[in-house]
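It is worth pausing here to work through a concrete case rather than discussing structure prediction in the abstract. The textbook approach is simple: state the sequence, then state the predicted structure, then interpret. We follow exactly that order.
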Amino acid sequence: MQRIGLIAGNGQFPLIFARAARDLGYCLVAVAHRGETDSALEAEVDELTWIQVGELGRLIEVFRRAGVKEAVFVGGIRKEGLLDHFAPDDRGLAFLSRLPHFGDDVLLRGLAEELEGEGIRVLPSTLFLDSLLTPAGELTDIQPAAEQWEDIRLGLRVAKAIGEWDIGQTVVVKNRIVLAVEAIEGTDATIARAGRRGAVVVKVSKPQQDLRFDLPAVGPRTIDVCARAGVVALALEAGKTLMLEKDRLIAAANAAGIAVVGVVP
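Step two, the predicted structure:
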């Protein structure tokens, strides 16, 4: 069986990826992060090793010992996690000392270079799962009103601008006023913090997005957060945003009266 290394972060995406890979007959050697990765992953992979966030040397050693030549980064690491349970080993500290700053893009590209320097090729996280990428067009029975489309267009411009600075991927807009931009707190907290009745949420990839990792993702939980915050429309960048549990997401949005659209900036 062909082996793939799975570097697992948080959320449902590692579980979805693992099931798809196993269905196709791949052997999965996973490295999971304490305090981040769902323990249910253990039942979905052939081998699993738990590490602390930052244990780069141990991660590489696990893959080398298992004969892994290809790997994927699936699921994110909460920025708060870098503060709460960050415990780099010697290899991790040496890696961090060479970085100009600790932005997501710099960290992830640097990690990919470290792995590829060890003969481990980093593959796209959407391997086997292109069907999860958001299609263009109106995806729910409910459609955005004309004034909400104005907010969406403004949100797209602002979201791409903050993405260029590696700040976040999500903005909340109402009446052409930006209510919030995503930073360290993550998408759900941004929506909850800024939610106003009639607001729209826009989520995009960064202009410099490396499609191998850190793709923006939403799921049914995102719809729940939007509903509680009074959001009426969710706009996702088509082809570059993952829709996890898409059928459940769309059904939840229809039930909550929230328009979901795939847009091309």
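Step three, interpretation. The longest strand covers residues 27-33. The CA atoms of residues 5 and 36 lie 18 Å apart.
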